[in-house]
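Hey team,

Filing this mostly as a record. A colleague (T.K.) asked me to run one chain through the structure pipeline before their review meeting, and I want the input and output archived in the tracker in case anyone asks later how it was produced. No errors, nothing strange. Just documentation.

Input sequence:
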Amino acid sequence: MDSAGLEKIISFRCDLTYTKADLNLNMQSRPYSYLFSISYFGARYKGWAPQPNQPTVQKRLERVIRHVLGHEDFSLIGASRTDSGVSCLGGFVQAFLREKVSVDQFFPELNTHLPDDIRLNSVEEVPLTFNLIQAVRQKTYRYYFSNEASFHPFASAFLVNVPISLDFDLMKEAAKLFEGRYDFKAFCKPSENKTDYTREVLSAGIYSSNEFLGAFFPTKIHYFEVTGKGFLHHQVRKLMTALWEVSNGNWKLADISNRLANPNSDWEQIPPAPSNGLILWKTEIEM
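Output structure:
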């Protein structure tokens, strides 16, 4: 299959924009801070961050907190802003409140009113000096996919099927090329307002999965796992596409190396892999 055929399979911000002023304002007017760990299934949401007239995870969480508290004098800051359709197993959100609450009552009541596709896993009160954005040390994403001639539509909730010939040994070799500190401008969605595209990938690899089992799932499921200190808009999904391109013979290993070595060249844009296969697997923070 050529690149045009692969693009049909892959048809379709990770960087945060909270400022120090935002955090200082929260600390001054809402002196009580609580850290929640969170999981959500992203299929019904247009990402984490609020958007006009669109359902998002943060907007849904804010609606429930507003109902439980009985007022709107609070604010939230998330550790990551996932894209539309992307899910999260291990994320964090920091809440700033004007009054102290009993976590033993507040926490279960929030989960009672949240929909089944959003779950708060834990909560703890944190000092005002705690800054969630600065506390994030690294994030791990997993992109789940299969390589089957026949694929049940129910499985598409969690993974993407790529029904073309894939060389998994070559894909594993290609994934290692992403490890290190590089300018990833050729592997993300560039922005007019962004000048720094340098990010450090700590590890990247292709693995076999046993997380999804049952009659509707393929017998063999794979995932691309990548860990880094931060990621650019569409970076992980475009890395996934690049690995498929190498694996099916459309690209050579040198194509990845050349893009990393010459990020500002006039490269053809890489289409991002579909969002439904991507999960923010783990966020590591320093307390």
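Quick notes for T.K.: The chain has a mean pLDDT of 91. Residues 20-134 form a domain with the Alpha-Beta Plaits fold (CATH 3.30.70.580).
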